[in-house]
Amino acid sequence: MSTVETPLVLVGRVRRAHGIKGELVVEALTDTPDAIFAPGRRVFAGTAEGKPTRDPLELVVLRSSPFKGGWIIAFDGILDRTQADSWRDRTLLLPEDEIEPPGEGELFIHDLIGMRVVLQNGDAVGEVAQVFELKQGLLMECRRPDGRLALLPFNEQTVTEVDENERVITVDPIEGLLD
Predict the structure, then answer these.
(1) 176 lies in a domain?
(2) Are residues 114 and 76 in the same domain?
């Protein structure tokens, strides 16, 4: 166990166990997975929702290698397939102060969660509930005011403005996308 003083941010999601020695297949949610998951680095265990656990468990990377668009990672303390299977869909977190801050006009993906989404005329679309990182780009799941969900791409064609201070994303979706 370790205590963490700064906010933890999402850097990976465990997809499944790999092999019989406790290795995990991890989807990297960072632009620098080779640095974040380098041997000797530490990350913290998170919930499936990407939140820190009450007492964040520190995991030390023993070895890692790229694998089919993700990473195979062995952590100290995860010794066999049975233990590794219990990690499926859990998240991996890192203290925010250990990550290179976003550049000018950039945001961390996790910063999009909870932002209000509005049309160019100001009408409410909803609030970002989740963000999915796909090969085609980011996809925002927006919870509509009536409780329905809408999926919107986070791209130049759809997103016209992001006001980080006001936490508002202005969109111009193609016709029918919100129906």
Answers:
(1) no
(2) no
- Asked if residue 165 and residue 92 are part of one domain, the reply reads no
At residue 143, what is the residue type?
A: R
Q: Considering 97, 129, 145, which residue would you say is the last residue of a domain? A: 97
Residue 4 banded pLDDT, cuts 50, 70, 90: low
13 and 93 in a common domain: yes
Q: How far is CA 140 from the centre of its chain?
A: 12
**Total domains present in the chain:** 2
CB contact at 8 A, 107 and 60 = no
**For the chain, percent of residues with pLDDT exceeding 90:** 61
What pLDDT, in 10s, does the model give residues 23-35? 999 998 888 899 9
Three-state DSSP class for residue 28: strand
Rounded distance between C-alpha atoms, residue 74 and residue 63, angstroms = 5
- The DSSP code for 83 is H
pLDDT in tens, 56-112: 789 999 999 999 888 999 999 999 999 999 999 899 999 988 888 777 877 878 788
The reported pTM is 0.67
The answer for 101, left when phi > 0, alpha when psi is -120 to 50, beta otherwise, is beta
Q: Tokens 């909870």 — which residue?
A: 114
Q: Is the dihedral of CA 150, 69, 22, 3 positive or negative?
A: negative
Q: How far apart are CA 81 and CA 134, in angstroms?
A: 28
Q: Which amino acid is at 98?
A: E
